[in-house]
Amino acid sequence: MSRLAICPGSFDPITYGHLDIIERAARVFDEVRVVVFNNQSKSPLFSVEERKELIEVSTSEIPNVTVDSYGGLLMNYAEDVEAVAIIRGLRAVSDFEYEMQITSMNRKLNEKIETFFVMTNNQYSFLSSSIVKEIAKYHGEITDLVPKVVEDALKERFKQG
């Protein structure tokens, strides 16, 4: 029986911080499915399909990683695909309170699926998709923050402005 973990997020866009978490989860679980969720409280720069494609290219060297998208509750998706775990990345202590609330609610919805918190590598602790987008918008250097495919997509998106 394969042990499937889900790494959920909006990934708008995926960064090296996300990839660090995904790569480390892929060493522990048989399969890691990166699932793009459309967070209604955010205005995404990239469509769900564009984000999926960027993730697929960025994770193509990790054989046990697949990419999907979903529009409903994470725990419904996790149950449907028979996942055993949810992977959540933590950058700093400030992330913990929010993540704890989400995890507690998820556990209430389905106590059979565990949540694992993975601390990001210190070199990415400051990194967020929002920061990357802000830097890219003003044509700042993002080479060390995102994969080349993401850098190119951001440059293309912001070349008009």
UniProtKB/TrEMBL annotation:
Annotated ATP binding sites: S10, F11, H18, G89, L90, R91, E99, Y124, S125, F126, L127, S128, S129, S130
EC number, UniProt record: 2.7.7.3
GO-annotated biological processes: coenzyme A biosynthetic process
Reaction(s) catalysed by this chain's protein: (R)-4'-phosphopantetheine + ATP + H(+) = 3'-dephospho-CoA + diphosphate
Class of this enzyme: transferase
Main location: cytoplasm
Keyword Transmembrane: no
Pathway: Cofactor biosynthesis; coenzyme A biosynthesis; CoA from (R)-pantothenate: step 4/5
Similarity-based family: Belongs to the bacterial CoaD family.
Function: Reversibly transfers an adenylyl group from ATP to 4'-phosphopantetheine, yielding dephospho-CoA (dPCoA) and pyrophosphate.
Protein name (database record): Phosphopantetheine adenylyltransferase
The organism's taxonomic lineage, starting at the top: Bacteria, Bacillati, Bacillota, Bacilli, Bacillales
Gene from which the chain derives: coaD
